[in-house]
Design brief:
By secondary structure, the chain is an alpha+beta fold. The chain contains six helices and eleven strands. A five-stranded mixed beta sheet has the order 2-9-5-4-3, covered by helices on one side. 40% of the residues are buried.
Length: 268
């Protein structure tokens, strides 16, 4: 958290508020996490783009790269955990981050050496470049668990814990299976599921969990958590088959799935 739907929701809501405005100053509390911010002062925000879970502010020949970490959000009102204050002409943006895992850096455009995940990221899942055939080929190159492969951002960009679990459930694929074990038909099914889940999450403004950490720039929550089928629902009944939803830990991440309709065997 935040993942693609939350980051894209933030981007869409910030865009009309900041694009075309000049940055007057950036105040922050940690030079190690928020780097080269003085380079942004005096420059205009020409556009805001998103790449996976990153926000990219176009500042002429520079980029301000923002990664929200586990708990970050960009808001138009000040919260109790503000780490960066971005002063623009007629507008202030606050980077709130309770757990302090977020990062911000002003860099030459396209120079992502400080963000290796961004540099090696796979295709955007809602773009034409994300094809079922290409997705299948990427999965075949990895012997990691399919969930771990998706979280790496290499087969496809923007998926985190929530939307990986939800997509795998919809596609009836067990998160512990090796990525390379998926058949072409299973990869196609997962490809469709990823796109369907993300589109619906975007419609509902992302997921605001019980901790209330993620809020839209307006201060409103997202609502996709109401439609979570497995994530955060361990011990409840699977809405598809009625079996009890199981929770395990994979690569240090909580992982939710239905053991009946997401079996380890690949024959379904």
């Amino acid at each position: 958290m935040p993942e693609l739907p939350e980051v894209e929701t933030i981007r869409r809501m910030l865009e009309p508020a900041v694009v075309g405005r000049r940055i007057l100053g950036l105040e922050h509390d940690d030079e190690r996490k928020y780097r080269f911010t003085d380079l942004a002062v005096g420059r205009y925000v020409r556009a805001i783009r998103r790449r996976g879970k990153f926000l990219l502010f176009d500042l002429d020949d520079l980029e301000m790269v923002v990664h929200l970490g586990m708990s970050g959000s960009l808001r138009l009102d000040q919260g109790s955990h503000t780490r960066v204050r971005i002063e623009l002409e007629g507008q202030t943006v606050f980077f709130n981050d309770p757990r302090r895992f977020g990062r911000l850096a002003v860099l030459p455009r396209g120079d992502y050496a400080a963000f290796p995940t961004l540099a090696r990221m796979g295709p955007e899942p809602l773009s034409r470049s994300f094809t079922a055939a290409g997705f299948y080929r990427s999965l075949q190159r990895s012997r990691r668990a399919i969930k771990t492969a998706l979280l790496s951002q290499e087969p496809v960009a923007g998926l985190g814990n929530i939307y990986t679990d939800e997509s795998l459930w919809l596609a009836r694929i067990n998160p512990l299976r090796k990525s390379s074990s998926l058949t072409l038909e299973e990869a196609r099914r997962l490809h469709r599921a990823i796109r369907k889940v993300l589109r619906r999450a975007l419609e509902l403004g992302g997921s605001t969990l019980g901790d209330g950490v993620y809020l839209r720039p307006s201060g409103e929550p997202g609502y996709f958590q109401i439609e979570h089928r497995v994530y955060g629902r361990a011990g409840e009944s699977c809405p598809r088959c009625g079996a009890t939803i199981f929770k395990t830990v994979l690569g240090g991440r909580s992982t939710h799935f239905c053991p009946l309709c997401q079996p380890r065997a690949s024959h379904m």
